[in-house]
Specification:
About 45% of the residues lie in helices and about 15% in strands. The chain is α+β, with helices and mostly antiparallel strands and about 750 residues long. It has five domains: about 90-220; about 225-330, Calcium-transporting ATPase, cytoplasmic transduction domain A; about 335-400 and about 670-750, no CATH class; about 410-435 and about 555-660, HAD superfamily/HAD-like (Rossmann fold), CATH 3.40.50.1000; about 440-555, Calcium-transporting ATPase, cytoplasmic domain N (3-Layer(aba) Sandwich). Strands 10-22-21-20-11-18-19 form a seven-stranded mixed β-sheet, sandwiched between helices. α2 runs antiparallel to α7 and α7 (about 195-220) packs parallel to α26 (about 710-730). The longest helix is centred in the C-terminal third of the chain and has 35 residues, at about 665-700. It is elongated, with a radius of gyration of 34 Å. Belongs to the cation transport ATPase (P-type) (TC 3.A.3) family. Type IB subfamily. It comes from Cellulomonas flavigena (strain ATCC 482 / DSM 20109 / BCRC 11376 / JCM 18109 / NBRC 3775 / NCIMB 8073 / NRS 134).
Length: about 750
């Protein structure tokens, strides 16, 4: 194989080696790669490199752990971080609260049944056994100090931080009940304040609610564990002439591993032998297997479906794509959004609302001569007002959204970006590698006396020994047509001219204008419109005569057409920005139905273009993949990086598409809109429930004979948490497949009319 004959000034040729992960021009890496097919400028042949980076998140990003909604969750087993610490800590929380719930439930049963007040309520008499009256106080004290410890320590933390919330409310309620019950037991306070049974039920119900909540939050983090499980337990490493079985963690850069049919790739690397259809759905969300052969990159955790591969490892451990995805999901689950901050503030407001309501309740009921009833009502108010569901409403929705997104091939690095995506009214796409494949393809064929297939077969024979993108495009076109490519001999390459071979005794040359000038030949007139559209024109010369010409251009993705149509159906304007010349850009824009095209934009000016759109009042999502897109991605209201792009672009974006399918932008929009809808539903349910229930707990309906018991209030409060959690879980039912999203977009009501904007 030789690259010597290639020289189309192609920038950023695809890199497969781990040492070539930065965007460089071909001239920087291959001094022999000059335009030997004849002087086409970079504007005609912009070809930026694309690779799935070994380090997905690329650069350290600021981690902003969310405020703990429930204090520190410290239990008898030790300290447990709040809900902001998504990930492995939730597994500990689940086990802790499950154990606390069942043990305290066992203690609560005799506490309730042997409580004098509870016996009086149900009308049964306690056995006359010495010491039996002390069972409820003794067990109630254990329940308060042990089962209630997570709430008490959380209350202390909130009090010290001067950030009142749910833990302080629960801690206050159970402490008041505990003190009042001991007062009644010792005869200091009225017998009617014997709340041991209510204290036991309250703590058990709160533990149950927290157990369910922790289990839900642990399920939202299961994507991280599932991603880790994608790696095989063993890897088959080639060691000289033998194959040894090793742990994937022991692999080093440069090792060659065998991936057998049906086996998982143990580490990121390059295929050095074999070809197979690889299932990458767990990484990209693409359901169809992708053909991978020698020179192609494969990602750890993907599956070789039908054939064996030999892969040279070029990334291990924390440098793999899979590890990067795990970091992105974890970072997204720990980031704080505006909606989440609003919920935190609402919990604080609810504390003061409950406290003031409790004070008013005590004052009013004490004024009418029932201080004991006033205390009972005040305790019930404090229980009902606990913002348990409110604290869960936002974090659970966003956490499930980011996890669901990860399984759909959308990696949310900044949850605030996902939140903003619902209001985006303009999507600005980079062209090369985003709307187009970033690779040349044969678009037009013209001949002068032979058939199209024969011309293409001869050109493919001439280019068979080349690795240049244009050569690969010609051979790929011949392969797709099912042509038999004849064997070529005497391969020669000439800088800035082209290549020549001998095929069945005929001299065949492929090149650009310089080849024609050298042979004293004229270009075919039919090729002039091709050049006007920005295509690269290569002529095929057979035995000194022009046999035909090929027009090559960056191939537009079929998925791009569907993405643009679907975005239009949602009422969103679609624009394109590129450094290409205006004819090239307009051709792509016209083909896709783009609303506005910005052509000939220098990399440093892309961000100012985004800023000018924002200055017009537009909310802009920028979709790009290259180093030159990074400033624009950072400037946009939402930066969306194509996952096959560069580390710099990914570091500048808030959302990353694991695949290069532009229809994945619809996934982000759908998730943002559905997530916001669930947030509103949960906030209305949680806050509305609290606001409506507090007056009932205060006893406003007591004059008509209805008094809300404290234990019923506690049960209803926990049920509100279950409702919020169940509503958030419905997000898991979202179908984020490209086909479903495009169909849904066309079926959706347009947000508003689009007005025509001339091309820039």
């Amino acid at each position: 194989m030789s690259n010597a004959h290639q020289g189309h000034d192609v920038h950023g040729e695809r890199r497969s080696s781990a040492s070539q992960r930065h965007e460089l021009s071909v001239e920087d890496t291959d001094p022999l790669a000059h335009d030997r097919h004849g002087g086409h400028d970079a504007g005609q042949m912009e070809h930026e490199g694309h690779h799935m980076p070994a380090h997905v998140d690329g650069h350290d990003a600021e981690h902003r752990p969310s405020a703990s909604h429930h204090g520190e969750h410290m239990g008898a087993e030790g300290d447990h971080g709040g809900h902001g610490a998504h990930g492995g800590g939730h597994g500990d929380h689940v086990a802790l609260f499950r154990r606390l719930f069942w043990i305290n439930l066992a203690l609560a049963v005799p506490t309730v049944l042997l409580s004098g007040m509870f016996a009086d309520l149900l009308g049964y008499a306690l056995p006359d056994v010495p010491g039996l009256t002390w069972v409820a106080p003794a067990l109630g004290t254990v329940i308060y100090l042990w089962g209630g410890r997570p709430f008490l320590t959380g209350a202390v933390a909130e009090f010290r931080a001067r950030k009142p919330g749910m833990m302080l409310l629960i801690g206050m309620a159970i402490t008041v009940a505990f003190v009042a019950s001991w007062g009644a037991t010792l005869g200091v306070l009225s017998h009617e304040l014997d709340f041991w049974w209510e204290l036991a039920l309250l703590v058990v119900i709160m533990l149950l609610g927290h157990w369910l909540e922790m289990r839900s939050l642990a399920q939202t983090s299961s994507a991280l564990d599932s991603l880790a499980a994608l790696l095989p337990d063993e890897a088959e490493k080639v060691d000289g002439d033998s194959v040894v079985t090793v742990a994937p963690s022991s692999l080093a850069l440069g090792d060659v591993v065998i991936v057998r049919p049906g086996g998982r790739v143990p580490a990121d690397g390059q295929v050095v032998e074999g070809a197979a259809d690889v299932d990458e759905s767990m990484i990209t969300g693409e359901s169809r297997p992708v053909f991978r052969t020698v020179g192609d990159q494969v990602v750890a955790g993907t599956v070789s479906t039908d054939s064996a591969l030999r892969v040279r490892v070029d990334a291990v451990g924390d440098s793999t794509v899979l590890a990067g995805i795990r970091r992105l999901v974890a970072q997204a689950q720990s980031s704080t959004t505006r909606a989440q901050l609003l919920a935190d503030r609402a919990a604080g407001w609810l504390f003061w609302f409950a406290l003031i309501a409790a004070v008013i309740t005590v004052a009013i009921w004490s004024a009418v001569g029932t201080p004991d009833f006033a205390i009972i009502r005040a305790i019930t108010v404090l229980v009902i007002a606990c913002p348990h569901a409110l604290g869960l409403a936002i974090p659970l929705v966003v956490s499930i959204s980011t996890e669901r997104a990860a399984w759909g091939g959308v990696l949310v690095k900044d949850r605030a970006a996902l939140e903003r995506m619902r209001v985006v009214d303009t999507v600005l796409f980079d062209k090369t590698g985003t709307l187009t494949k970033g690779e040349p393809a044969v678009h037009d064929v013209a001949t002068t006396g032979i058939g199209d297939d024969e011309l293409l077969a001869l050109a493919a024979a001439a280019e068979a020994d080349s690795e240049h993108p244009l050569a690969r495009a010609i051979t790929a076109a011949a392969h797709h047509r099912g042509l038999t490519v004849p064997r070529a001999e005497d391969f020669q390459a000439s800088t800035a001219v082209g290549v020549s071979v001998t095929v069945d005794g005929r001299w065949v040359a492929v090149g650009g204008p310089n080849l024609l000038a050298e042979q004293g030949l004229d270009p075919l007139p039919v090729t002039q419109p091709w050049s006007d559209r920005g295509q690269i024109v290569l002529h095929v010369v057979v035995d000194g005569r022009v046999a035909g010409a090929l027009g090559l251009a960056d191939e537009v993705r079929q998925e791009s057409r569907e993405a643009v149509d679907a975005l239009h159906a949602l009422g969103i304007r679609v624009m394109m920005i590129t450094g290409d010349a205006e004819p090239v850009a307009k051709a792509v824009g016209t083909e896709l139905g783009i609303d506005q095209v910005f052509a000939g934009v220098r990399p440093e000016d892309k961000s100012s273009t985004v800023a000018s759109l924002q200055g017009e009042g537009r909310t802009v999502a920028m979709v790009g993949d290259g180093v030159n897109d990074a400033p624009a991605l950072a400037q946009a209201d939402v930066g969306v990086a194509i996952g096959a792009g560069t580390d710099v672009a990914i570091a500048s974006a808030g959302v990353i598409l694991a695949s290069d399918d532009p229809r994945s932008v619809l996934s982000v929009i759908q998730l943002s809109r559905e997530g916001y809808r669930k947030m509103k539903q949960n906030l209305w349910w949680a806050a509305g429930y609290n606001i409506a229930a507090v007056p009932l707990a205060a006893g406003v309906l007591a004059p008509v004979g209805f008094v809300l018991p404290m234990e019923i209030g506690a049960i209803l409060m926990s049920l509100s948490t279950v409702v919020v959690a169940a509503n958030a879980q419905l997000l898991r039912r979202l179908d984020l497949s490209p086909q479903a999203l495009t169909a849904a977009a066309h079926g959706a009501q347009r947000v508003g009319p689009r007005t025509a904007v001339p091309a820039a």
